[in-house]
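Appendix C reproduces, verbatim, an entry submitted by the partner laboratory led by Prof. M.T., so that reviewers can inspect both the input and the predicted structure.
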Amino acid sequence: MREGFPTAGELSRFDAIVVLLPPASTPDRRLPAAAQWRAAAALHASASRGKPAHATASATPLHATSGTLPGALGVLGWCREDAEPFEVLRAAGVAVQKLLTERPRAARIGLIAQVGARQRGVWQEALCAALLTQTFDLPADKSDPPPARPALRLTLFGGTKLDLRRVIATSEATNLVRHLTALPPNRLDASGYRRVLTLLARRHGLRLRWHDERALTRWGAGAFLAVSRGNPRRNAGIAQLSYRPHKRRVDAPVALVGKGVLFDTGGTNLKPHRAMLDMHTDMSGSAVALATLIALAKLRAPLPADAWLAITANSIGSRAYVPQEVIRAANGTTIQIIHTDAEGRLVLADTLVLAARGKPRLIVDFATLTGSCVYALTERYSGIFASSEPLAMQAQTAGRDSGERLWAFPMPEDFDSDLDSPTADIAQCAPES
């Protein structure tokens, strides 16, 4: 982290310098090769007239004196000065995409947020996050893999004090989620996931308890077991990972509950091809809960937390559950099965019951339940349901501050009538779902 701007003599030390600035601004005259920055900005402004400036970026080679120094790549990105964190992250992402398109193996990168002191930290953090995620190599099984990416070396100019430990831990958590959701389902099956959890628990000092189908049968977790019943192997289970801060007094933990359906065929109500193709990502809720817990451990947060992960597949087969069955959840509630592709609410129902028995101060459930939420909100928002309006407002505020847009859906009591059942305490879903 450095005060001021890089000097002309330092250009040869960088592969690229990224500057993020408001649309009406011009690159600062104190930048090295300032004339080239300003010419590039003017050319881009002319070419992109009428387009949303916060979603564009340009790149140009920089030389302190004509041709005498190796050229660093100069990347300009634009963002409204009053933009919310979501927009800043998007603008930073566009700038980093431009950089990596022009120079994919860039490793030595300078970051400059040319904005007022009040917003500079948010902008610098967004640039760091964009680089740390977009330079992360996702798992691939190509016979001719790409060369290993060089170690990233970032220099932040501007002097703002960032909590870099938090920025790095958050980015590493994001990349863990991306890595797990990118794994093919024949590698990340329930047994493979359990091995990953064992490794991560040892690495980060977490306690891992695996509640297998025999334990779940003893506890009456019939909702989870109805879904796992169709799997060819008896390796499904609910994982419980615990983080406790190093202090004598331990408060009630926060419970992070995540859906870990490793592949969702839809069961007896089989999904069509396009709807099934990416269903190896139906475990992303569990990955988010897991990565959040690991981030808390890395930061040695004073907040105790448990992650409860419902890990199974929703398979077809002779033992798979079918519509009109009546099953019993771990809290004794009987459920009339309507549609076997509404499996997420079943595995989460029993997981929530088990998590609640520990009397946590708060339960956060990462559901990844239904495409209907995407249809309603697009992928620019996440939908939430909360047990109280103040809790929903807290979640929305936290989301806005961290760049995650949230929209709270209503949950009035009269909606419950849609789940009335003639044969059980409750229907799994409405018949027209």
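The longest strand covers residues 254-264. Additional entries are available on request from the coordinating office.
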